């Protein structure tokens, strides 16, 4: 056992009357009591008795070694490190002291320093299996640190979290590893986990600049920019040279300012300026997933105002890729799909929204999209006649007249059989379209998406010639006359 001369300090004046031998005997008694409490796992009492022993004999290495072991069990690793270092200063051949110092370094994440301690043990006891095993553990931690550094440079944050989890199995009190893990959790969007790690550190050390930075980073990435800035500023007060906190603070302020400029331009109707401002904001920090999702959605809103519908759809898709729960982006994209008549895509987005939020408004939007999809699968009679869906009665009549004359079979009597068949088909479609759109009741049913068969109209038995004759005044009212090869003029009776 490592021993040392007894030279009591800060003791009761009566202790001055005791001889060195009596002091040593008294100290040994306190140590034995400390050992008893240690065996019972009453580490607080063990600590008290080891402290009494040290007060009796402050130059006894083994007492510091025992108190270091107790402090380790109490998770007071930094104090344990100080005691174990004092133990080996008093007795450099104290192998348990070197072992405990190495273990403290490991717990605190100082693998290089730990390795030196274990190597010293092996110099004193070459066959120490414990030192050999601990040395392997230190080497493993160094390797995990190396892999984490490479992972961070490659932005492989999952790899960093994995490495830090493995390292923390031995370096359980290393704030540096915990902070790196928390930062990567934040960068992965796992904010509650990152906040939990940072908060645990702040409970132990409220001035820890790294933990303050990570806490602010989580708030920043959750789009709580004002609160985030407060944490970044606090971190910089604790550590003025904290580069990450300074950069994050600058980005947060710039992002907020640019986003607000874009919002102001949009409200003022200056859509071109708003589009550019949102685009500039998106370049500030690619890591801020939640804010960037909102910026993409905002730019999509502006894009739809500027009739850049395909670009708006693309921006919404980017927003959803960043945040799959972003309902507003689904709604915006669905509306753009409706405006571009991509009804199947619109229905898919509205279904996603309604499954998430079953509101009356979302149900109405879904039903409307489903109706438009159903209508889109029928013949588009407006398109057949070449008119807008809001065309007037006169516009529909003029369109029918033009298309019916263009596709009338008599006009193409000299064409090939294939061409005659195609023109006859088009002539029939034009008649169908006119028979529906010129009848207010049928037009209303058609516009509302109802099946026309329910109205007694069987389009399979439709005769386009009857519509043509009725429109142009019956038999003898109209004919085609040839005026040369491939040319016709229209003869009215």
Describe it for me?
This protein starts with 19 loop residues before the first helix and ends with a strand. Helix 15 runs antiparallel to helix 16 (309-322). The chain has a two-stranded antiparallel ribbon with strand order 1-2. It has 493 residues and is mainly alpha-helical. It is rod-shaped. The model is unreliable at 482-493 (pLDDT under 50). 71% of the residues lie in helices and 2% in strands. It has helices at 20-39, 43-56, 61-73, 77-90, 95-107, 111-124, 129-153, 157-168, 175-187, 191-204, 209-221, 225-238, 243-267, 271-281, 289-305, 309-322, 327-339, 343-356, 360-376, 381-385, 393-407, 417-437, 440-447, 464-472, and strands spanning 478-482, 488-492. The longest helix is centred in the N-terminal third of the chain and has 25 residues, at 129-153. 39% of the residues are buried.
Please summarize the sheet with the most strands. Answer: 2 strands, antiparallel
Low-confidence segments? 482-493
Termini Cα gap: 132 Å
- The amount of helix comes to over 70%
Give the overall pLDDT as a whole number: 89
**For the largest beta sheet, what order do the strands appear in spatially?**
1-2
Strand content: under 5%
Element-by-element helix/strand order: HHHHHHHHHHHHHHHHHHHHHHHHEE
């Amino acid at each position: 056992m490592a021993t040392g001369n007894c030279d009591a300090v800060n003791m009761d004046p009566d202790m001055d009357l005791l001889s060195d031998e009596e002091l040593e005997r008294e100290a040994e008694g306190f140590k034995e009591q400390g050992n008893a409490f240690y065996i019972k796992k009453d580490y607080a009492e063990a600590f008290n008795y080891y402290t009494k022993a040290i007060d009796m004999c402050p130059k006894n290495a083994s007492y510091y070694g025992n108190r270091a072991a107790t402090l380790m069990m109490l998770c007071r690793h930094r104090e344990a490190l100080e005691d174990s270092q004092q133990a080996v200063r008093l007795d450099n051949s104290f192998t348990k002291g070197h072992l405990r110092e190495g273990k403290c370094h490991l717990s605190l994440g100082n693998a290089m320093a730990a390795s030196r301690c274990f190597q010293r043990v092996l110099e004193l006891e070459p066959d120490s299996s414990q030192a050999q095993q601990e040395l392997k553990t230190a080497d493993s931690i160094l390797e995990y640190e190396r892999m984490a550094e490479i992972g961070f440079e490659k932005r492989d944050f999952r790899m960093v979290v994995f490495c830090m989890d493995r390292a923390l199995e031995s370096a359980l009190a290393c704030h540096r590893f915990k902070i790196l893990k928390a930062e990567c959790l934040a960068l992965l969007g796992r904010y509650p986990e990152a906040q939990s790690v940072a908060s645990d550190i702040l409970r132990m050390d409220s001035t820890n600049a790294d933990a303050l930075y990570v806490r602010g980073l989580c708030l920043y990435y959750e789009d709580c920019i004002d609160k985030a800035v407060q944490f970044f500023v606090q971190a910089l007060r604790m550590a003025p040279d904290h580069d990450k906190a300074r950069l994050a603070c600058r980005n947060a302020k710039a992002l907020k300012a640019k986003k607000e400029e874009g919002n102001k331009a949009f409200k003022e109707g200056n859509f071109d300026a708003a589009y550019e401002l949102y685009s500039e904001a998106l370049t500030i920090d690619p890591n801020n997933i939640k804010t960037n999702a909102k910026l993409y959605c905002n730019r999509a809103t502006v894009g739809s105002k500027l009739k850049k519908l395909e670009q708006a759809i693309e921006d919404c898709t980017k927003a959803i890729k960043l945040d799959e729960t972003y309902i507003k982006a689904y709604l915006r994209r669905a509306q753009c799909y409706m405006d571009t008549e991509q009804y199947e895509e619109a229905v898919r987005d509205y279904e996603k929204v309604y499954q998430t939020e079953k509101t009356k408004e979302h149900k109405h939007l879904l039903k409307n999209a489903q109706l438009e999809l159903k209508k889109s699968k029928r013949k588009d009679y407006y398109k057949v006649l070449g008119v807008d869906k809001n065309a007037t009665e006169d516009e529909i009549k003029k369109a029918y007249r033009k298309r019916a004359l263009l596709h009338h079979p008599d006009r193409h009597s000299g064409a090939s059989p294939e061409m005659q068949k195609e023109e006859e088909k088009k002539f029939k479609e034009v008649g169908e379209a006119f028979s529906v759109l010129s009848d207010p009741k049928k037009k209303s049913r058609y516009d509302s998406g109802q099946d026309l068969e329910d109205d007694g109209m069987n389009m399979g038995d439709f005769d386009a010639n009857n519509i043509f004759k009725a429109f142009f005044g019956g038999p003898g009212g109209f004919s085609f006359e040839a005026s040369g090869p491939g040319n016709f003029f229209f003869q009215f009776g």
